[in-house]
Fold this sequence. Notes:
Helix content is about 40%, strand content about 15%. The protein is α/β, with parallel strands linked by helices.
Amino acid sequence: MEKQFTKLKYEAGCDEAGRGCLAGPVFAAAVIIPKGVNIEGLNDSKQLTEKQRDTLRIEIEAKTIWAVEQCTPEEIDTLNILWASVSAMHKALSKLTTIPYFVSVDGNRFKKWNKIPFATHVKGDARFMNIAAASILAKTYRDEYMKEAHQKFPMYGWNKNKGYPTVQHREGIAKFGICHEHRKSFRLLPLQGKFNF
Length: 197
């Protein structure tokens, strides 16, 4: 895995977590790995265990320039999930204490931020360390959020499914209805059709 796409001093890697979920915000992170910094074990967050992600998060936060942001379910319903994900990345980039010279984004869609040049990379979180680091931060922060939300809404099983469309989550929706964390623009039940909550 390469550290970053360009040879520039400050390149930010961006990734999001939670695009395929039925509930909760979409989280995004931006990470600049300074020259000379090496973090062993970086990989696409989905390829790591929860314990590995949590351990790497501590190291990423200690050694890099980073920021994490989110777009709420309401923003997702307004913008749609793709552009809400991009908006969350823009928010994270705006929070960085160092302005990057270049932005590398996981996936294939992005809107230019602050006139900074960018490139999109399909499976970038498995190719570049700065995107992998961003994927780990986005995932761990989102998982943390959903575990806390589970305390208020235990009927959906978010401590295990983190808002993804599992059988348990959909059974909870069918039985108890939805809460403010649900994305109303998503098909929350398989046979929902035109049913309005």
